[in-house]
Structures are given as C-alpha cells and as structure tokens.
Known about the structure:
heterodimer; A: alpha+beta; outer membrane lipoprotein receptor (LolB), chain A; 2 domains; 12-stranded mixed β-sheet; 8 helices; extended; B: Rna Polymerase Sigma Factor, Chain: A; Arc Repressor Mutant, subunit A
Amino acid sequence: MRCLHEVELQAVADGEAAGASGANAWAAHVAECARCHERVESIRRDLRDVAAVLETAGEIPPRLEARVREAITLQEPIRGSTRLREPVEVPAWRRPRIVLPLAAAALVTLIVSGVLPRFGAPPTLSASQVLSRSLETLASAQGVEVLEYELVSDGLANGSWRIHLVVDHDRPTRYRVTTLAADGEVVAAMSQDPVRQRRTQLVRVDGRNYVVNVAPVSNPMLSLPQMAQALAETTITMMQATTDPKLTVVDGPQGRRQYVVEMPPVTPTTTAATLDLHRARAVVSATDFRIREFEASGTLLKQPFAISFKLLQHLVLSGNVQMTPDPFELLPGPGDVVLEGVAAEHPFEELLTTLARELARARAF
Amino acid sequence: MPVAAAPADPQTETLRLFQEHGASLYRFCRVTLGRADDAEDVVQETFLKLLQHLENHGARSNLRAWLYTVAANACRDRLRGRLRWLPWRLEQDTRIVDVTEGRPEVQAARRAMRALAPRDRLLLSLRAEGLSYRQIAQAAGIREASVGRLLARAVQRWKGKYALLT
C-alpha cells in the first residue's frame, strides 16, 4: 500500500480513522511502514505540545469561579473586575511591514476624505458626476478627521490591516497613522506634528515596539497623506475618464441606499504609464456621498497591485478644539524601546539610520 | 420496577458542570481569544446559556460538546468584533503583557499558538481538549469531512511558527 497523506495520517493520529473507508488498511500500513509510523507519532507529539500550551493557559481564576457561581445563582451576568467589555487586542500574526502599510493606509485615507457636499442625493446622478464631486471636495475637508478602516493590499504590500488615522486638514503635514493587524496588534505607526516640530515612528519587531523620536524636524516636502492625495486624485480621474463607468444603486447596511461606481475591467497591457488601472469600484453612500468602499487593481510603477478598503468609522473634530490627550501624539507604552533619532530628509531614512546606529552601539559592547 | 432518578435542577446541574468543565473551558477560551478577561466573559456567558438551556428542558446528552460549541461561537463573535471599529488609543492601551514563566520551549509553543490565525487556534484547541471530529465540526461551524484536513494544516502552520521561534 502507498504511504498515507497528511489528512489520513492526521485521522490515524487522532483516532478518527475508524469511520473512513480503508481505515483498516491505513492502520496496517502505519504498523508496517516506519516512515508513516514516525509521522503519526510526530503528529501526536505536536498535539501533546499543543495540549501543553493549553495547560499553561493557567487555572481558572478564583474571581471567575465566584463570579460564575453568583451569575448562575442570580441568573444574570455579573460585571465585576472582569466586566463584560468590547474586545480589544490579540497576538501578532505577521512580521512588521513598516513603510508600505503606512503608505497604503495614507492612500486610502485621502480617498475616504473626499467628503461630497451634503445636500442629499439628487434624483438622477451619473457615475461621472459622483466622481467629479468627490474630486472637487477632496481637498476641501476641514478640521481634524479621525478615520478607521479595513485595508487589504496585494502587490504594494501583502496583507490586511486595520488603519487608524488622524489628519489635520488645516495643516496637512500634521497627522498620525497607526497600522494594526487584523487581530488588533499594532504593526507600525507614525505621527508628525509641525507645531511641536516633532516626528515619531513606531515599529514592532519580534513582539517589541521601538519608538523613534525626532525633533526638531522640518516639514517634508510632502506628507504621507499629501502623497496619498495625489495618487487618489489620479485614480479617481482615471475612473472618471473611463468611457463607460457603470452606476448602480443598491441597498446598503440598514437599508441605506448606496451608489456603486464601477470601471469596466480592461485587459492588462504592458504600458509605460506610471499608474494603470485595470479595474476599479467605489461604493458611495447616497446619504452623505462618502466613499464607503473602494477596490482597485492595476499597475503602479510597473508593479501589479490590488487594493481594497472598507470604511469602518469616521469622525470630524473641530480644528480649534484643544484635545486631551493630543490625538497626534504617539506615546510609548510600557516595555517599548524609545530611541532619539536625528532629523533627515525622509522619515524612513531617520528610522533606518537610528536603528542602524543603535545596532552598531550594541555590537560595540 | 426501577424508577429513573429525577434530573438535578438546572442551577445545581449548571454548577456541577462548571465544576467539571469550567477550568478546561476557560483554558480553551484563553488560548482561542488570547486575553484572560475576554475568556472570563465568554465562560460566564456560556454557563448562563447552559442554565437557560437546561431550564428550557434542552437535551442533556453530550453537554460537554454543547458547552464547547457555545463557547467557540462566542469566541468567534468576539474575534469578528475585533475587526470592527475600535477607538484605539495607544496611551489608553492597558493591555497586560502575558506572563513568560515556564520553560523556553513552552513559551515558544505558546507564542506560536498566538501567532496562528483564529480558526487554526480554535481547531487545535478543540482537538487538544479531546473533542472528536464531529464535535469539532459542530463547534467550529465546518464540515466534519474537512476537520482532518484543516487540522493537519493547522498543525503544520503551528509547527512552522514554533520552528521559527526556537
């Protein structure tokens, strides 16, 4: 008989092979074949290790025991030291991606920031008109905007993230962007405040945060949001210039009407264009004309990319209000390594040179 | 003629089952969710649902699998909820760093577990708790025929991450 494949081996190791056809032959083969026997034993060892991990999760806390007993007696949830709450965090699932998630995040932000005039949905509207209004208002946002969205990217950077961004539209170089893994773990963050002449970057490496502070800084020629805005404007203009963008009206969440603007898919060709769109789709709220979802694929600098985002939350704060804590500040947490960097032309250069310097110092010891 | 013993009243039965399975259910939720406080919440919710189930004269056969199914569903809901809007603030982030006691290989095993996708973590945890493929399928909301394949892949991914950490 042939050697067993992984699923069959798993079933044998788990004692679940009995119901399968050929189970007897599997068992006989495992008994005879040293290789398969070892693989089954290896799976069993792995599962024992996993069980050991469960054991290390600890004993049931005494307070939980008391709490559950009380809840069962009273027949209602008990909100004690372990009150019922919204979930917040979890473990990391990816190695840090520093530059590209932030750039991609910023790209999306400015697309989302295209707040269209809030005078209600007109009875008829063309796809081009929707995009035109989006473009016209892209740069007109005011105050401090707080955005949270899901971002999925392929090509520019692979992965999915949750992005939290605060941007001051009155001072476009003042912002804070935080990239979180899908499970809530911080992957990277950057904040820049021209008022305080301060820039802070946070990167997470092997489960530890490294925070690089640079001050005083001069404003870069373009901030991440500004670069993203340029790209967003180009993308929307290209969608608008498409011969026949398709517009449909659909029912969104809670029965709210949404416009879906789609650029018909085109066959990818080899071009010298900096940005080439092969497909694009935007979902716009018919209530406030905000772009709720956006998907695009094509090539950027001849590299294929696909990007999609979904707006989760949006908040506009008055730029005049003094906010505490400062939403643009990126503060280190307990256990974070804080480094003082030297200002450079490019923020990522600052990060790189600071980390390299610290590495060199560490090796010198 | 023998007379069948009357079933215990729901509260007594729920407390007995908590005594019997509470600790393992807590460990399961703790590993699946990664947070002690979330795990505690889910355990409480699960046993309150069990109480309602028993009071409504629900089936009393295989209540262990029932408990894991309810807890796994609650864990999944919480994990999904994490993908929704959360007003995260670094300065208000009071997450507690996990304890690091134990042998280095156990620490690595735990970190590898945490690094897995939620479904992998769920499947491995259910299996490690001794649930059958049928019970795992029920709890995880997948087809029984897929359990072996998904488990095998989860084990491979866990081994890969564990190897990176050791």
